[in-house]
């Protein structure tokens, strides 16, 4: 298919299914795939971002630092250069509506985001952290995005690339509290990652530990973690890594070109000395792992390491090498007493989490994942086309794939009357930079139903 026609087809298919509401909160020893009832900052004041400066009046940083319920909209498009610093979101009740930015949207470079608050929705933002020319092992080790003891968070339709630590993670303390219930309460919980792209974690770059191309780390005792229709590509490992006691669900994700591990679970004795082990739980339904140029021969979909047990339910998952030959579903690293326990049924999924057959997943996520699928930048387009073509590889430096984007800044007023201020969907059915051929009316019946919200 000619490239222009293929691009048009991907734009036409690009949906914007956003899980706005989900049921359930984790409790002690109650298995639950999780979700959140958050509405972020809906109903709060509108804060306009009017400059691409890293801080100061009108900046993105000033908007996220503001207090009280708020919806952050953008009257600028382009690159926010953080100069090797990390943005910290510490104030709750926040919606970041990157879809409101004029084309080409908002891209954060030379930095990352630490999300340390609750009731936050982050949508349609690109974060391209990068090595930024730093010497090997020199200590620059930012995540592209990590929640830090956060809860009730939705990360939807974002692109995270070139992380020097992880690309897209949920973290926090392991043992903050007197018992398991308090440990879970005091670390990240009820986090949804949906429709995101986490790609090209940098391998031998500036991280002080050396090789560190990592997709997603879900830290010990995090619960209510949902991965729904995301793409991981070209990460050596952690797509994702679930640490001790984690409770998570993976539904309809694509893992492409993992290096030495794809999904893995590891409760490490060295980190749990003096504490009773907690069995982790994973429900994995309708996921696809495809080997690529960087993938170890015979790599399993799931690998078990460490000392702790993992209880899991698996259904309709596909694992193949770059030639389409079947790969093992389960493997191990480390000869320990850790057991993989098959569950007879899945943990409860959020009500909105519609499940596609695994054979439909790749087509769907390549059309829909990442920031602004109707208005993709060169790097997202490159990564997703290379996945479709079986190309690409793990990299050490963003420079080898073109380096940081530097688009010309754009400006356009945000007009409140043109948007549904509860859902932050455009009333016209078209987003900034979206042509008429990709309007809501042209979406498939399935995608249209998904856009209408969660199942009740």
Structure description:
This protein is an alpha/beta fold and 456 residues long. The chain is built from 7 helices and 30 strands. Strands 3, 5, 7, 8, 10, 11, 13, 16, 19, 22, 25 and 28 form a 12-stranded mixed beta sheet that branches. An 11-stranded parallel beta sheet has the order 1-2-4-6-9-12-15-18-21-24-27. The chain is globular, with a radius of gyration of 20 Å. Mean pLDDT is 88; it is low at 1-33 and 437-456.
Key descriptive features of the protein:
disordered N terminus; alpha/beta; 456 residues; Pectate Lyase C-like; disordered C terminus; eleven-stranded parallel sheet
State the helical fraction.
Answer: 10-25%
| Average predicted local confidence, pLDDT | 88
Quick one: CATH class?
Answer: Mainly Beta
**CATH architecture identity:** 3 Solenoid
Strand and helix map with partners:
Blueprint: H1 3-13, E1 45-49, H2 60-65, E2 70-74, E3 76-89, E4 94-97, E5 106-115, E6 118-123, E7 125-128, E8 145-148, E9 151-156, E10 159-161, E11 168-171, H3 180-185, E12 189-194, E13 197-199, E14 217-218, E15 223-228, E16 231-233, E17 241-243, E18 247-251, E19 254-256, E20 263-267, H4 269-272, E21 280-285, E22 288-290, E23 302-306, E24 310-315, E25 318-320, E26 330-332, E27 340-342, H5 358-368, H6 378-389, E28 410-411, E29 419-420, E30 425-426, H7 445-451
Parallel strand pairs: 1-2, 2-4, 3-5, 4-6, 5-7, 5-8, 6-9, 7-10, 8-11, 9-12, 10-13, 12-15, 13-16, 14-17, 15-18, 16-19, 17-20, 18-21, 19-22, 20-23, 21-24, 22-25, 23-26, 24-27
Antiparallel strand pairs: 3-28, 29-30
């Amino acid at each position: 298919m000619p490239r222009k026609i293929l691009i048009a087809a991907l734009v036409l298919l690009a949906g914007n299914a956003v899980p706005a509401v989900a049921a359930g909160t984790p409790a002690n020893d109650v298995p639950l795939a999780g979700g959140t009832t958050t509405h972020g900052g809906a109903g709060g004041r509108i804060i306009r971002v009017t400059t691409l400066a890293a801080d100061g009046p009108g900046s993105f940083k000033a908007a996220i630092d503001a207090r009280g319920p708020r919806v952050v909209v953008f009257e600028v498009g382009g690159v926010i250069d953080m100069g090797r610093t990390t943005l910290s979101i510490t104030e709750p009740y926040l919606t970041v509506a990157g879809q409101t930015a004029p084309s080409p949207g908002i891209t954060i470079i030379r930095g990352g985001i630490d999300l340390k608050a609750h009731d936050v929705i982050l949508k349609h933002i690109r974060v391209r952290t990068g090595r930024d020319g730093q010497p090997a092992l020199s200590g620059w080790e930012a995540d592209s995005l990590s929640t830090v003891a956060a809860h009730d968070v939705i990360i939807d339709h974002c692109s995270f690339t070139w992380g020097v630590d992880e690309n897209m993670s949920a973290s926090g303390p392991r043992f903050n509290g007197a018992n398991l219930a308090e440990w879970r309460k005091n670390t990240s919980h009820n986090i949804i990652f949906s429709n995101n792209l986490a790609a090209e974690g940098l391998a031998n770059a500036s991280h002080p530990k050396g090789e560190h191309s990592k997709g997603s780390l879900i830290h010990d005792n995090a619960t209510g973690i949902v991965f729904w229709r995301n793409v991981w590509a070209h990460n050596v490992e952690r797509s994702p890594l679930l640490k001790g006691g984690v409770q998570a669900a993976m539904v309809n994700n694509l893992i492409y070109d993992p290096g030495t591990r794809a999904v893995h679970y590891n409760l490490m004795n060295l980190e749990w000395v003096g504490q009773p082990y907690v069995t982790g739980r994973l429900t994995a339904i309708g996921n696809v792992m495809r080997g690529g140029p960087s993938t170890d021969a015979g790599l399993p979909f799931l690998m078990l390491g460490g000392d702790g047990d993992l209880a899991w339910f698996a259904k309709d998952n596909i694992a193949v090498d770059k030639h389409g030959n079947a790969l093992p579903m389960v493997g191990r690293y480390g000869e320990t007493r850790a057991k993989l326990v098959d569950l007879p049924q899945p943990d409860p999924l959020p009500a909105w989490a519609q499940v596609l057959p695994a054979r439909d997943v790749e087509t769907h996520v390549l059309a829909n994942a990442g920031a602004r699928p109707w208005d993709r930048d060169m790097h997202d387009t490159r990564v997703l086309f290379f996945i479709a073509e079986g190309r690409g590889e793990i990299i050490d430096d963003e420079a080898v794939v073109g380096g940081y984007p530097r688009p010309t800044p754009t400006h356009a007023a945000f007009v409140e009357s043109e948007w549904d201020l509860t859902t932050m969907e455009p009333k016209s059915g078209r987003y900034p930079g979206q042509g008429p051929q990709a309007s809501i009316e042209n979406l498939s019946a399935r995608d249209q139903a998904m856009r209408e919200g969660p199942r009740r």
